[in-house]
Amino acid sequence: MNSQSFLNWIEGRWQGGETWIENRNPSDTDDVIGLYAQATPAQVREAIAAARHAQLLWAATGLEQRHDVLRSIGDELIARREELGRLLAREEGKTLGEGVGEVARSGQFFHYFAAEVLRQLGGKADSVRPGIEIDIQREPLGVVGIVTPWNFPMATASWKIAPALAFGNAVLYKPANLTPASAWALAEIISRQAALPPGTFNLLMGPGEAIGHALATSDGVDGISFTGSLETGRRLAAVAAPQLIKLQMEMGSKNALVVLDDADLELAVDCAFNGAYSGTGQKCTASSRLVVTPGIHAAFVERLAQRLRSVRVGRALDDGVQMGPVVDGRQLEANLRYVALGQREGARLVCGGEALARPERAFCMSPALFDDGRNDMQINRDEMFGPIACVIPVRDYDEALSVANDTQFGLTAGIVTQSLRHATHFRRHAKAGCVMVNLPTAGTDYHVPFGGRKASSYGPREQGPNAAEFYTTLKTSYTRA
After folding, report:
1. Catalytic residue list
2. Across 105-236, where does the E strand assignment appear?
3. What is d(CA 439, CA 445) in angstroms, rounded to the nearest whole number?
4. pTM
5. Is 283 exposed, middle or buried, given 0-12, 13-18 or 19+ CB atoms closer than 10 A?
6. Which domains does the chain show, CATH number per domain?
7. Residues 6 or more apart whose Cβ sits within 8 Å of residue 198
8. 210 burial class (0-12, 13-18, 19+ CB within 10 angstroms)?
9. Alpha carbon 41 to chain centroid distance?
10. Angle CA 246–250–252, to nearest 5
11. Are the CB atoms for 245 and 217 separated by under 8 Å?
12. Which residues of the chain fall short of a pLDDT of 50?
């Protein structure tokens, strides 16, 4: 298949770069999706300067026009969800159904924040001093850098770009270099919005250590919204601090799903399977720790193993495939190292954990399930980011809650139980930003806050009306009549 070349979008123009990267299909590495330009430091500076000028124009644009821009982007994403979902699956390895669903959800983010444009209401207060009125209003933060990961290349970008534009900011979008095709497709749709002043939205493809560092060390950037690893987040915070750049960061996780004796077995297996293995386990909300009490333990492990052994792993775009490849060779190697490590640590490998031979060169592995794990094992401390989960047996609910909370992370946590008492207690005492009862830990709505605690998140929450906390700044005005 012949490859095409794809450019960066800077100050309203498509621009090449001094270097390019190949984007290959993890289901078939002979399939080159395209060549993608890598932005230079000079182009990053150009984009920042253009964004500072354009942001003032965009913020002064009427609300209905801003609403229409976001609505139009959402409409096109949803209308093209089959086409773009196929592209996403081809470059990232999600199954076709998951890819189509991600694109549709991306459109919903733009629709939601289009409506939020028209809901920008201020506040009013009486002063403690006679004859003075107080107005409280939100204004745009300014120029926002948006740094996104490879595992949700369109959805994560959309839930950041949509509120940034809705609240009158200019955007410097730096996608992950592993999945530039989906990023470019989204940028191309946004680039055709004539109402956006040139420079309001910029696409800057390139390595994080270059582009991300340039954004974080610039005094022309007012905020950065980042999703990625904890290590990268810490480095970003360190270099952004001297510029006093406002940060919003979603980082690592090690989510637990607790299964109690009274759980419905089929529901528990379904929650574990979808939470731990959907998207090839490459989700920050994945439940790679399955914390199970004794009465249901044996039946749960047996039934989940049966489910995993029946999973059809293969090319992401093939009919009937239930699990695609992992994103690239390095991720596959890391996953296989964790499988070997888990065995050395003493966990029992129940099934899976093998690289799968394919007619084409692909990064496929069978989904792995460990049993008899301990929470102090490295496989239960590190975010593995693959189709690997470990059952940790516990005595009772109290130990289950303690194990679930015993992690440096705190993004999601789940419990499967028919006990209202235990469900209510878990909701109140799980140290996580999102708690699920009788649901997979992976799967959240776009109209409510998303984010975690401890090392999982830093700064204001994402999504829903809470997005305004990051993308705007408050102004309090006093007036004497």
Report:
1. 250, 284
2. 123-126, 132-140, 143-147, 170-174, 201-203, 223-227
3. 13
4. 0.96
5. buried
6. 5-251+456-480 (3.40.605.10), 256-437 (3.40.309.10)
7. 11, 12, 13, 50, 54
8. middle
9. 26
10. 140
11. no
12. 1-2
